[in-house]
Predict the structure of UPF0301 protein ACFSCW_10630.
Amino acid sequence: MNPPFLTGQLLLAMPGIGDPRFERSVIAVCMHDERGALGIGIGRLAPRLGFHALLEQFKIEPGEAPDTPVHIGGPVDPQRGFVLHSLNWGGQDTMEVDGRFALTNTIDVLRAIAEGKGPTRWLAALGYAGWSEGQLDEEMTRHGWFTVEATESLLFETPVEQRWSDAFKSAGIDPRLLSASAGQA
């Protein structure tokens, strides 16, 4: 039996996942189907990179856009930009994610944010996490990942450094009690 698709969920890396790129990761799963999965990391910030510098690369005046930090979206295609945002804005190639949030990776969302006409809630990320056909499904059967509902609060209000622990707490789990190794019965 196939596991349920995880689109619209937050994927949390368990302690001891075994891949340092994903230690304490929080990934918003934007697409998950029989062909594979794509998610945007929202639990780590790119060092010394603000939104204004990102806009500058596209020769866009920052205008009304705050100079928020940019997230490390994942290890795949780290030069490619994404904006995870509220559903009150849509543009060219915007993908609605399970009625919870949206994802846009075209320049029109950057211009809209700079002009003060973009989504009310958003975060920018470089790169993404990707899984091939069946890969995430298989990984979910082993120790390493846990899922919780992707709420607006966790996506847009919770400080980045608290997202991982607060996401576990939203499921009633004290993250301090998690073990880095799986047990045996």
